[in-house]
Amino acid sequence: MSRVVLTALAAVAMLNLPRAVLAQEQPHAFVDARIIAVNGSDVAQGALVVHRGKIVGAGASVSIPANAVRIDARGKTIMPGLVDTHSHIGGGSGGDASAALQPEVRLLDSFDARHSGLRRAVAGGITTVNVMPGSGHLLSGQTLYLKLRGAKSLDGLLITTAEGRIAGGIKMANGTNPLRPQGGAFPSTRARSASMARDLFIKAQAYRDKMQKAGDDPAKRPTRDLGMEALSEVLEGTRTVHFHTHRHDDILTALRLAKEFGFTPVLQHVSEGWKVAAEIAASGAPASVIVIDAPGGKLEAVDLSMTTAPALQKAGALTGFHTDDYITDSRFFLRSAGLAVRAGMSREHALYALTMAGARMLKLDSRLGSLEPGKDADFLVLSGDPLSVYTHVEQTWVEGAKVFDRAVPGDRLVAVGGYGASRNETLHTHEEGR
Amino acid sequence: MIVRCRPGIGAACALVLIVTCSSVQAQVAVRADVVHTMAGPTITDGVVLIRNGRIERVGPAASVQVPRGYREIRARVVTPGLVDAHTVVGVSGYLNQPHDQDQVESSAPMQPELRAVDAYNPEDKLVEWVRELGVTTMQTGHGPGALISGQTMVVKPVYPLRSTAILVPEAMVAATLGEDAFGSEGKPPGTRSKAVAMLRAELLKAMDYASKLEGPEDKRPTRDLRQETLARVMRKQLPLMITAHRSVDILAALRLAKEFDIRVVLDGAAEAHLLVDEIKAAGVPVIVHPTMYRSTGSAENLTQEAASILRRAGIHIALQSGFEGYVPKTRVLLFEAAVAAARGLTFDEALATVTIDAARLLGVDKRVGSLEAGKDADIVLYDGDPFEYTSHVVGVFIDGEQVSTQVR
């Protein structure tokens, strides 16, 4: 057996994905479905062919291999799995009360793969998610990009980057959440928040410079500093800052910090983004919008408007959505796009925002976000139009394996709720009843 | 003096006309492709005539002659104004700062004497928000979170608030059972059993007070606002609205209803779907939690199909926007009904939970909840299926006055 095969087998064992492998042995063809490829045009009747966890083809004129398992999807709509750029499923934590900036802390070390939130997420059609620590810090820690493969341990959910690193970003925040009136280790004003963040990045620049100067000589390297290592990745552009920010002036403050230190953040929430849409677009920073049913609830969300997503899109900013689960429920993520269209966004942009835009924000767009040959077979089977309230997610597939099926009682329980639906210990394994 | 908007009554009246036509006295004909009256079959190509703040006539365009001088408005779809069976809008303000949070007074666990009208702010931004999204009547006031937090009122979300917009100044007494009503920092109640014991003791006192009120004049008790309110509960003049999510708390609420022979309305009731027979037998109506309510804490076992399950069992239900402590500060009633329509209810049933059924539950169905001649002219206009995410509310009338022209 070649080394490559051994490595592949080891990887599979590590990922705990026996079912995924089975599903990929033979090509699967979903035929006669309406296909929304996102990076192509909608096809009223076409097919999706997947094999070994990847998409082979999608559209009206896809050739279906003779040995393919044919699945009649007449009347169904198939679209890419949804990408949620900001979620709190998994019960993970970030920094503690000892400091306002804690770049060394990893959500990775507190994530529960058996948390009920993961099953609600796949029930809502989410296949890729950025799980973050909270916004009560200026910098609360390192985030995790996950594929919701149905694995029961974290290792089976991780994504590896091109650099061989576990994929994830870093969470920053400004505005009121990180402020503490009593001060101490935390700021009590916005200007102090900004100066503390700048101080940290100046230190990170010095650390990075020392590392670069040392080159290959370990003796010349500075003592390892976990936080500085993470921030060096930010400065080098290999780790993305996800910046929680609501008020229009806070948004501009986040962009000012990013410009000073030469990184491009993903702006998260941007409740008042409609006021500074042109500035956001000009900065080149993508923005991920939370769609909320009413303004208010906190001082910096009093001018929250559903028009933010269409305003950003029209200004030319890369615009996506997130759940901020538990603030909004992952099971209703499709609704964000529906309400954005209600507020004036085009249908195509709204569907792009749910999928490709998020993939680009997580720098995973070469692997997922649309139904294109070679991409991961992450897709949804919907009962109808993705923007209709009457539509249900019927099936969710990740890398060619079915991770949610509304026809299975245990999955249906998670999708609509009921006794035990929110328990973290799962009630059944996915193989049951199939 | 009523100046009618009839053409040709002289130039001197022109200015008066403008004022009058935009006020309560306006006469309007709303013509729509689809009219959901909630008082009979849906009308295709229908007309609703509004005169002096009331609905004058409803019927197919072919058979309803629009009188001269009526302002004509067109819409794709028309429904009755929406009735929110339970909210805290106007009392729990949108800023969510201590100074605008009046839904729970935490100085004592039971304060039934607190009136909603003394805290209600008709100018709060969320009052406008829900109005623009079709709510024309709502039960609002003291919220969940205390054993007895106070009273509620039934009001139309108009600004400025006029006395006629208050349909029921003292509608229900709001109580909460379970962990959500536990006192902070060791204050009672600290357990479920203690909470029920406290409520029972208070109701016994009220019983005594109520009987003394009916006794000879010289033996009547000194006025006591708290006991006066609960005496009205004992006399079945005011329902006790009990927010209870867990089965154990719902059963406790039903026991209270039986023991004291009082009117109980179950609120929230996340686990009501597990107790259908008991609730049905008790004849207690349920104001079901919002369909998209968070399934956490005491509501962890809720189902989005609750409205459907309870309605199929023959239980009188209505939907609500409920109470939210953070973001969003209120839910949108129309959106909650929409999801209920996709979770087991038919379109008409879902619409009924936020119109006629809610009006009946609140005892205001003689005035609101359906499009029928003689009822208040509370009407919502849409540009498509009212429940679809991508449709809009395009106009709202309360008492015949167009209170919103926003496209929401």
Characterise this structure:
The complex is a heterodimer of chains A (434) and B (408). Chain A is α/β, with parallel strands linked by helices. Chain A has two domains: 3-80 and 373-416, Roll (Urease, subunit C, domain 1), CATH 2.30.40.10; 82-361, TIM Barrel (Alpha-Beta Barrel), CATH 3.20.20.140. Chain A is 29% helix and 20% strand. Chain A contains twelve helices and 17 strands. Chain A has helices spanning 3-15, 18-24, 116-123, 190-214, 226-236, 248-261, 277-283, 308-315, 333-342, 347-354, 356-361, 409-416, and strands at 28-35, 43-51, 54-59, 69-72, 77-80, 82-87, 126-131, 139-142, 144-147, 170-173, 241-245, 266-269, 287-290, 319-322, 379-382, 393-398, 401-405. In chain A, strands 1, 2, 3, 4, 5, 15, 16 and 17 form an eight-stranded mixed sheet that branches. In chain A, helix 7 links the parallel strand 12 (266-269) and strand 13 (287-290). In chain A, helix 3 (116-123) packs across helix 12 and helix 4 packs parallel to helix 6. The two termini of chain A are 33 Å apart. Mean pLDDT of chain A is 93; it is low at 1-22 and 427-434. Chain B has 408 residues and is an alpha/beta fold. Chain B folds into two domains: 11-80 and 372-404, Urease, subunit C, domain 1 (Roll), CATH 2.30.40.10; 83-362, Metal-dependent hydrolases (TIM Barrel). Chain B contains ten helices and 16 strands. The chains are: A alpha/beta (434), B alpha/beta (408). The interface between A and B is large, with 32 and 41 residues.
